[in-house]
Amino acid sequence: MAKKLLRALAGEVQDVPPVWLMRQAGRYLPEYRATREQAGDFLSLCYNPELAAEVTLQPIRRFGFDAAILFADILLVPQALGADLWFVKGEGPRLSTVTTQADFNPLKPASDVHGTLSPIYETVRILRRELPQDVPLIGFAGAPWTVATYMIAGRGTPDQGPAHALKDENRPLFEALLERITEATIEYLSAQVEAGAEVVKLFDSWAGSLKGDDFDAYALEPAKRIIGELKARHPDLPVIAFPREAGEKYVGFSRATGADCVGLDSRVSADWAAEHVQKDGCVQGNLDPKLMVTGGQELIDETKRIRDALSKGPHIFNLGHGITPDADPENVHVMLEALRG
Ligand SMILES: Cc1c2[nH]c(c1CCC(=O)O)Cc1[nH]c(c(CCC(=O)O)c1C)Cc1[nH]c(c(CCC(=O)O)c1C)Cc1[nH]c(c(C)c1CCC(=O)O)C2
To answer: Main EC class of this protein (predicted)?
Structure first.
């Protein structure tokens, strides 16, 4: 029997949808925290193929999810382009900033990213050997806009203000940066597929802060380019696009970009998505990650409600965003029982 996730991506409607969770390998799991400790820190874990493969496998062993997602980070691409990257404990990522032509000039060409990223391809090769036969591996990268917001600000920002400011004040530089990230992302994802990733996902976590024509130019168009080039190189490759908080812009996104599936955040209702988004194909989502912390009957009811609302078309069950460090692993079992039971 073909893998459940691949069947959903091919448009098959299933009584019980395949399920995996964003950030399923992460700090809510004690075994993840132990392996990260063993690696030293988060980035050392990302670049250690044996240990990165181990943390990718941990949630598969514990929960029996229908897909594994490569353990890495979207900010490895800026690092491969030459940006400095480090993580401040309890705060998050920091990067050297790109706000002037002088900052941009030393960035490497896209074809040079493989030197830094080759350990990630080794992680993929290990995983293809070690994953159970029925569990496909999802590779991923950040979408150009989201990656650019971190490269421009040098950190996460609540409103992506610095990136919007550069877009408004120096559009040629902003567009050159997006172009470089786009090219690097094509190279990176293509190499993941060559190493054995069976599906790829493009995370545009901050797509929702792009409005109107900006959304089309800087979220939709780059996704379309990346997906078009990947499918030219790997014709059967399924792609999941996640323009988080796109709202009304979710409508038609998969048709316009060529994505096989669109990821939904928790702000849109499953009923609305069934009518307006799922008519174009597979959707993924969209349980509120908070329910993995609070649990109880509401978790059970919401899981079933989303499953039922999206049951008339192809659906991959997931959260609306990543599972948080304060989530209770027991609640994952509760959700799986509600979904599959
Ligand atoms: C914006 C973004 C990043 N990284 C990612 C995104 C897009 C998705 C999203 O919106 O969440 C994507 C990502 N990051 C990670 C994965 C691995 C696969 C998975 O299990 O989903 C994936 C797919 C591991 C990680 N990436 C990070 C962790 C936590 C690091 C740790 O172990 O201390 C993990 C497991 C760190 C990270 N990485 C990033 C930030 C802002 C942070 C700090 C915030 C935080 O601590 O949660 C950048």
So the answer is: lyase
